[in-house]
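ESCALATION

Customer reports they have been waiting on this structure for their group meeting. Please prioritize. Original submission:
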Amino acid sequence: MNLTLTDIERARERISGRLHRTPLVPSQSCSELLGCRVSLKLECFQKTGSFKPRGAFNKLLSLSTEERARGVVAVSGGNHAQGVAYAAQQLGCRATIYMPQSTPSNYLNATRSYGAQIVLCENIHAAFEQAAQANGQLVHPFDDPFIAAGQGTIGLEIREDAPDATHVFVSIGGGGLFAGVATALNPFCEVIGVETHGADAMARSLAANALVEMPAITSIARTLGRGVTVVSDEEAVEALEFLLERAKVLTEPAASCTLAAARRERFLPTDHVVLLLCGGNAALSDLCGWRGMIQSR
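Update from on-call: job pushed to the front of the queue and completed.
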C-alpha cells in the first residue's frame, strides 16, 4: 500500500467538519508512572467511540455519487462496523455490515442505531465470503489507502498539538491506523506499534485453520516506525484499569495496550510520550469479564 503525507493532508481536507478534532491532554498520573511527560490522544472521544469514522468518511467521500448510490458493504465485529455505518448515514448512503454471530450486543445495537443493515454470519471468514458476493462497494477495515489516509489525520493533529513529542505509541490491529499515523509523523518522532497477543492474527489464524503471520504489517512498522511491541492481555487490562481509575478515561484493551507497552520502556525526564487511545467502546459487562479472565489465569 503506497501512502504519502499528501494523501493524509488531502484526507483531512475531505473529511473536514464531519468529525471531532479529538483532544490531546497531559496526564499527571501517567507522567508519574513513566517518569516523563505524557499526553493522551483521546480518540476514544471520537464519534462512534473510536478512530474508525476517519477512514470510513475518507473512503466514502472518495467514491463517485453513482458508487455511493449503490451502497457500501463492510465486514466487522467491532468498531469498523460503527464507523462505516455512521459515515454512510451522514452521507445518505445505504450500508450493509456483515458481522460474525459472536459480535457483542453493544456493537450490534450501536451499528443498527446508525441505520445499517446487519447480516450475521457464522464467523469472520464467512462474513468476508458473503460480503465479496454482495452488491456495493466494499469498505475494507484497513487494506485500503483511503482508509489508512483517513486514520493518518490523527497523526497530523498530534504533530500540531504536541510538536515536541519524542515517542508516540499506536495500536496495531490490521495496520491501517499505524500506517497512517506513522506516515504523518515520520521522521519527527519515534512511532512504536503495539499489539496484544492474539488480537488480530488470532482471528485470521482461526479462519485459515493455520498460523497466520502479518509480514506486511511488520514491514510497515520497521520502515516507518521503531518496531512493534507485543504485550499480554493481562498487561493491557491492567493498563485499562489504571487509565480508568487514575486518568478517568474508559478505553478498550486494544487501546490501553499503548500504556502497557510504554511501561516496558525507559524514558528520559525530558521525553514527551503520546499514548494514542484509539477506542473506548467497552461495556460494563466487558470490564467484569476481562477482570475475571485475568484472575482465572
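Sent to customer with the following note: Residues 202-207, 216-224 have pLDDT under 50 and may be disordered.
Escalation resolved.
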